[in-house]
Amino acid sequence: MARLALLLVVIAFLAPMLWLVLGSVHRGSALSVEFGGSYTLDNFRAVMNGPTLWTPMRNSLVLAGSTTVLTVIVASFAAYPLSRYQLRFGKAFLYTIVFSTGLPITAIMVPVYSMFAHFNVTDSMPATVLFMSATSLPFAIWMMKNFMDGVPVSLEEAAWTDGAGWFQALRRIILPLMAPGVAVVSIFVFVTQWGDFFIPFILLLSPEKQPASVGIFTFFSQYGAVAYGQLAAFSVLYTLPIVLLYGVLSRYLGGAFNFAGGVKG
Amino acid sequence: MSSATLAPPAPAAPVPARARGRRASSILRRFLPLLPAIVLLLLFFAGPVLWSCYTAFTNQALSGPGAQNPQWIGLANFRRLLNDPTFIQSLVLTVIFVIGSAVVGQNVLGLFIAVLLRRSGPVVRTTVSLVVVGAWVMPEIVAAFCWYAFLNRDGSLNHWLHSVGISQNWLYTAPMFAIILANVWRGTAFSMMVYSAALSDIPPEVEEAASIDGAGGWRRFWYVTLPMIRRSILTNLMLITLQTLAVFTTIYVLTGGGPGNKSQTTPIYMYEQAFKFYDLGYGTAMALVLLVIGALFSAVYLRFVKADER
Q1: Rounded percentage of chain B residues whose pLDDT exceeds 90
Q2: A79 lies in which domain range?
Q3: Which residue of chain B is at minimal alpha-carbon distance from A78?
């Protein structure tokens, strides 16, 4: 019984995904999934040689990459005093952080746009990176603090007596010891930002600055109706880095990994 | 990298303990590592929230007179919201969307899969998680394309249903059903992972004791297992409600809120008003309503986290 139910679950979850895989290699780009027929890599060739793929992919890498680096650095700094000192406002700060992880980012996009327009920073990649980092920070700080709590303070004490400050202790002792935690936070932030559509859709206006999520949407609205095969191929290429990163992560953490663990509290 | 300039210089001396005059500087230094985060969060997170509190009371627009000199119009935007049947309808649709896809769909299906996986072997477990989590890690826009291709008039579902003779363009005939289904598919993995973690924390003796007392499968689940993961259920419900409240991309790609405004949830309506009709002030008023609803749920979630820490 249980096996049958799980089989149904697998089929139901696989069905919509099939189009992605089969549609991208099927000759004669149909919207529906047909088994059999002949297969080809033409769709991939067309997308990879076309003008629509590489600039958006590069922009995605720049946006998600810079956001990840900035978020992880800032979050690891912030986690240090929260984890190590008895701060007067530490608890309050932490609770504010947890509270903001819940706020719907979608809702603030209209005011963000209006604010960016007022300060003339719409269509700016650095400003977008700063905003993306700010939206990633609450969850990143929360996860980072929880991971840091797992590193015993006693290990730093030697460093303190040698006269090392917090920065030395963080860089030389804590971060190396919590490398898996840093990896989880980095990959989480990168995957989230790589896949985000709404933020760059609102804040970046010129096509040469837009990431793949927006580029693929433009492709869909312009050629979607005629080139479904290419749309599927584009989607596969755009999804691939995330699948690879996720694979690395679950391998690295022995399969026991889940993002939800950071939320459990 | 611009982040390097944000890094405060490393202090050379260890934490001073005795001298009273140095206390202030010690406190300051303890806060120093927090500074970059605080600055970023204030400017780009708290900033927009406060900004929306201002813009929502103006007639700011993307073009026209409201673009140059937004005027303070008091509560006019909110009065308009209350008298706007499309907005009220969008709220109702948002509630249906949240209840249908998160509270019922993702939550129940996630728990169901987690319970079944608990007794399964490693092969079944890996296969199921791979597929379910796969739907969750892929970019939202790609997930939306998958469902677009699946439910469209020429899509796979109709192709397979053709023999039964009920093929139709599901995105038009049943738009709410389509976006709910797509969102259940996409989000179930989260609930599944939360519940898998919670179930693995239950000591096996508890359930063994219950079955020795003669409790059958269902009774054991209902009276023993469920109460033990009550906290996780509540936390999960808060989190998926918050996530689902904010869903934009899936709906925008699948139906665009249509046909007409039959699947126009509040985020979609907000986007339309702000960026299609250039009415930023009105859009922001809607954003503020969403934000307040989100804040209420987030506050409840925070209470759970606090309770857990004690």
Answers
A1: 39
A2: 47-254
A3: B34
Tokens in use for B97? 């969307």
Residue A260 placed within a domain: no
Contact B267 A235 (CB under 8 A): no
**Tens digits of residue pLDDT in A29-69:** 566 666 666 778 888 888 888 888 899 999 999 999 999 99
Domains of chain B: 3-55 (no CATH), 76-309 (1.10.3720.10)
Q: Inter-chain contact A103–B291, Cβ cutoff 8 Å?
A: yes
CB-CB neighbors (< 8 A) of A141 in chain B: 37
Give the ipTM. 0.88
pLDDT tens-digit map of B223-257? 888 888 988 898 899 989 999 999 999 999 999 88
Q: Write down the pTM of the prediction.
A: 0.87
Task: List CB contacts (< 8 A) between A163 and chain B.
Answer: 12-14
Find the mean pLDDT for residues A219-237.
Answer: 84
Number of compact structural domains in chain A: 1
Per CB-CB distance under 8 Å, the chain A contacts of B179 are none
